[in-house]
Amino acid sequence: MSEPIGYECSLCGQSYAVDEVQYTCPKDGGNLNVILDYDQIRQQVQVEDILSQTEPSLWRYLPLLPIADPGGNGTPLRAAGWTPVFSPTRLAKKLGMEMLWVKDESRNPTASFKDRASAVVVGRAQQIKAEVVVTASTGNAGAALAGMSAAIGQRAVIFAPRTAPPAKVAQLLVYGAQVMLVDGTYDDAFDLTIQAAEEFGWYCRNTGFNPFTAEGKKTAALEIWELATKGAIQNIAGKPLTIFVSVGDGNIISGIHKGFKDLQALGWLEQMPRLIGVRLRLRTPTKPAMKRSCPFRPIHWPTASRSICQGMGYARSGLPHRPGGLT
Length: 327
Prior knowledge:
The chain has 327 residues and is an alpha/beta fold. The chain is 35% helix and 14% strand.
């Protein structure tokens, strides 16, 4: 592992010691970035040490992660990440693209990208000896936390809106998580998790709130970099690799950006890829909020893309929160 040396607020740039804060900036509520000791990593780790790894999961990047190895060998915890990349030639031709790759995150243990964040957060919970990990979710994030927690016997509590899909709730229960159904929205469930964490000392996994979620999500960037370095992914000469990322609250795209920034700080990345966020075609506050660095107002649209829509806006009744990555 790479011991974190502190946090930096994404809004005001204020630095904090690791034991000084845990979630967001006390000054303005901005998301915190985990700061690694890049000089130490360069001294102890070489690029070939990473490229020669045989570990078929995100734990191949343990030297670049701010947590200790949580163990769990032979469990789904060790299966998160290192998802396959496909080159759909017919789709590329239809879209008029010379090169196209699709990273299949459904191959993760609970079938979503959220497994990356949950695996790292559960590892962090073990490291700080947290008795309970809590999160708010309409499905995928909760399932990921429940699955990763079950793999190593970590107790998990999930707050979910009563309107969450029954199949998603059933998945949480199958993994053995304690589920609290909330008579309200995802935002209400989010607020309750923070209150519960403060009251009972639980460790809060909420995306866009816990800085270690981005550390899990950045592993997708590390995988793309590794495949590009090995020549499995090529970009057009002289042009940066372009990566399209689905955007709800922005935590995934900010996590991927963090991964590339880490590689750049280490001197292992020659050209920063171009990241493009893809969102629902709705009248949402995402774009203006990105420009103004301001909090959102929540929106609720009838759509099958429930997880994306839930992250489009936030109004947290004074809670110190900003949508992840948009600030």
